[in-house]
Design a protein that fits this description.
Distance between the termini: 76 Å
Strand order of the largest sheet: 1-2-3-5-4
Number of strands: 5
Number of helices: 40
Structural class: mainly alpha
Radius of gyration: 31 Å
Strand content: under 5%
Shape: globular
Length: 776
């Protein structure tokens, strides 16, 4: 271990070290640290380094844990000593593999640095040794919550059954309840923790945070005074408050409180990092970087901070484009292309939402578009691996570019619309809208924005409802924050949008606006539902269940809950007979139709597929009957029928990219030029990287007389770096001339001649443009 150069330290003899309990001395040193006597505490902690260097081989496992803990405190000023803490913990475990406390504390150290992988392995070993050890259960619950894995609640319940007054368990329970915005439940947990130990630092800190977030200024003041008297020069209450404020999307206030924490304790790297992350959420990139660099200098083992700084280092590779009320931040290789579509789309969305919500955001909205999903994930949660496509921090939104996923994997235009809707619902409520309503409104807005956008109903969603695996409408936040199975978050988005749909249909859309105003006024969900909808939460749950039965009851009856038990190897006659046995079973009809199609019995398959579509007409997924029926119709040469079927499919919800392309081609072949252009335009919000499609669309718009969009498509071709740049500039000039923009047309044709000086058609166009007057 590193040797500290201390002028005031008298190194104790080995005999004295053996006589004195290291655990007792550690407790005394921690007390000095907590009282704010940091210099004395540092001298006391540093003695553990000398003792270790003098007698490491003779120290017991418990004494080695004491050394490790001392190193974690010393690591505040010298982060290299965190390595020594790891060494001491490892040695403690090696000396006594049964020392479960050493494993749990080591896991907590890993979690403190956002290293959940090593924490998971360490806790697995601890719980294998004693599955009922309460600190291990609490740490594993914390780890699962961090990794968004199911089971945190059940582990915490086990811990509390074993020790009902365990302060760390009660405090974590309060955090978990606050995450789903059950602040009353969180308060009950934290009060119980404080009754068990009125001076517990983490419980006091979170109690302050909870009181601030719920607007209980009297309790906040009382608990803050108690915390400060017991823990002067300690920023944990500030950090806890800022983190909880950020969880409820109060980013500006979170940054303010975190800044106060950096003043209270300049060596609180957590306060500096919390400040930096919230400034970044507010779009204040330069100030955010300074705070994060300070945090990283003090603690280079915080993975979130390191990853975020690495991301900020790449911002030189982005273009920052001012577009009216927006500031687009897009990576240089695709900024010219995406901004062509993003600008008009965001303008339309902005105007739509201003009218809808009666709210206008202050200042520009920052829109960040990431070609790397890992970079977007780091921007959002500091770690790679986030499943979401976009995020909104209010006036800052971020999302994956279409290049971040496989071609055609998601609709980036719909995602951008969804995230901007959050800007308005968050802003209209002063950032107080609960997640379920903000997400529900965003999905609801997607479906209203454009045909083929927004989630639609799926068999899996209805089966989850039928089996009781959807959370009640009154507890929808649970489905987002603490899902019990992988699909539950996705289901919760759609379920929340159905709640909004129900409210709009039965109470009018004004009720949704009134709900937002209720949240702005600081009302709870229970109060908002009672005041606006005139019902309590159990009544809302019953009404939503009735709505589901009204809306999907017939479909639920035909889905069936067993496997269709259909094999492609079955003879065609047997497949037809199988379908005849259960004519009202959607799964059987679809499976039979698919199997017949795969066997080449296209004509026979149509009857089963049509029955499947009639049984569940709202489902337009790529694995449903619509695409198969379109193939069958095409197989018999019915292009018009296939195009009409695809149009019906598009109107039902999210529309696959290949379906957009096929629909456009069919409409073009059947002479429906206007709707063909519309289909190809829709495809650009899924995959905008096909030069050929842009050229086709440019020609279509020119034929339709939509010269502005023809110009846009010619600009898109150039943004994709075509091989024949002279021809691309020439065609852009033609489009600009037709749009009446002679000055731009002259510039473009000159660019064509720079690429190919002897390009005759370009020379002729230049002469014609000059003849129209002005310019070189």
């Amino acid at each position: 271990m590193r040797r500290w150069a201390l002028t005031l330290l008298v190194v104790p003899s080995l005999a004295l070290a053996q006589a004195d309990s290291l655990t007792t001395r550690l407790t005394a040193a921690i007390a000095l640290h907590e009282r704010g006597e940091r210099a004395r505490a540092t001298r006391a902690f540093s003695q553990f380094i000398d003792i270790y260097n003098a007698s490491a081989a003779r120290l017991t496992s418990r004494e080695l844990v004491a050394v490790a803990i001392a190193c974690t405190y010393l690591g505040i000023d010298d982060p290299q000593l965190f390595k020594d803490a790891l060494t001491a913990f490892d040695r403690a475990i090696a000396v006594d593999p049964r020392n479960i406390d050493a494993r749990v504390r080591l896991a907590e150290l890993f979690l403190g640095k956002y290293n959940s992988g090593d924490a998971k392995a360490t806790l697995r070993d601890a719980l294998a040794q004693d599955a009922s050890y309460v600190p291990a259960l609490v740490a594993e619950a914390r780890r699962r919550d961090f990794d968004q894995e199911p089971g945190a609640d059940s582990l915490l319940a086990r811990a509390l059954r074993a020790d009902a007054e365990h302060v760390a368990a009660r405090t974590l329970g309060a955090r978990l309840r606050a995450d789903v915005e059950d602040f009353a439940g969180a308060n009950r947990e934290i009060q119980r923790a404080l009754r068990a130990d009125p001076q517990a630092a983490e419980a006091l800190a979170f109690g302050v945070a909870l009181a601030v977030v719920t607007g209980d200024s009297s309790t906040a003041q009382t608990l803050r005074a108690r915390f400060t008297s017991r823990y002067p020069r300690d920023a944990r209450a500030h950090v806890a408050t800022a983190e909880l404020l950020a969880r409820v999307r109060q980013y500006a206030q979170a940054a303010s409180v975190a800044r106060q924490g950096t003043t209270a304790d300049p060596s609180s790297w957590a306060a500096h990092s919390t400040l930096g992350l919230n400034l970044l959420r507010l779009g204040e990139v330069a100030d955010a970087r300074r705070s994060l660099e300070t945090a990283f200098a003090g603690d280079p083992y915080n993975v979130w901070v390191k990853n975020t700084l690495d991301l900020l280092d790449t911002y030189g590779e982005y273009d920052e484009i001012t577009h009216g009320r927006f500031r687009f931040v897009i990576e240089k290789p695709e900024s010219r292309l995406l901004s062509l579509y993003l600008g008009p789309l965001m303008d339309r969305a902005f105007d739509t939402f201003v009218r809808r919500y009666g709210f206008t955001p202050d200042g520009p909205v920052r829109v960040e578009v990431y070609r790397s999903h890992a970079d977007f994930s780091v921007r959002t949660v500091g770690l790679a691996g986030l499943g979401a496509l976009g995020v909104s921090f209010g006036n800052t939104i971020a999302f994956d570019s279409p290049a971040a996923r496989d071609a055609g994997a998601f609709n980036w235009g719909s995602t951008a619309w969804h995230e901007l809707a959050h800007t308005f619902t968050l802003g209209a409520t002063d950032m107080r809208v609960p997640r379920w309503l903000s997400e529900g409104l965003s999905v609801y807005e997607e479906r209203r924005a454009r045909k083929g956008w927004g989630q639609g109903v799926t068999p899996a969603f209805l089966q989850a409802y039928a089996s009781g695996r959807l959370v009640p409408a009154s507890r929808l936040n649970d489905g987002f924050v603490r899902p019990e199975y992988p699909q539950q978050v996705l289901f919760s988005y759609y379920q929340a949008s159905l709640v909004c749909e129900l409210i709009a249909q039965e109470f009018g859309e004004k009720a949704l606006l009134d709900m937002l105003q209720g949240y702005r006024a600081g009302q709870t969900t229970e109060q908002v539902i009672r005041n606006v909808l005139r019902m309590d939460l159990p009544a809302l749950d019953r009404r939503f269940d009735a709505y589901m039965q009204e809306r999907f009851g017939r479909t639920l009856a035909v889905l069936g809950d067993e496997s269709p038990n259909v094999s492609q190897r079955m003879p065609s006659q047997a497949l037809v007979a199988r379908a005849a046995v259960q004519p009202r079973n959607y799964g059987v009809q679809l499976a039979v139709g698919r199997a017949l199609m795969q066997r080449g019995d296209t004509a026979v398959s149509v009857a089963a597929l049509e029955r499947a579509r009639a049984l569940f007409p709202e489902y337009a997924g790529g694995d449903g009957p619509y695409p198969l029926l379109a193939r069958a119709l095409l197989a018999r040469g019915d292009k018009l029928g296939a195009s009409q079927l695809l149009l019906a499919m598009r109107d039902l919800g999210e529309f696959p990219h290949d379906a957009h392309e096929l629909l456009g081609d069919l409409l073009l072949q059947t002479g429906d030029t206007a709707r063909a252009a519309e289909a190809f335009e829709d495809a650009m919000f899924v995959n905008p990287y096909d030069i050929g499609r842009h050229e086709t669309l440019a020609a279509l718009y020119a034929r339709l007389g939509n010269h502005a969009k023809a110009v846009r498509e010619r600009l898109a071709v150039l943004a994709l770096n075509p091989v024949d740049r002279a021809q691309a500039f020439y065609l852009l000039a033609v489009a600009q001339r037709d749009a009446g923009d002679v000055a731009s047309a002259r510039r473009s044709v000159l660019r064509a001649l720079e690429e190919a000086p002897h390009f005759e058609r370009a020379q002729e166009l230049l002469l014609a443009l000059r003849a129209r007057g002005g310019g070189p």
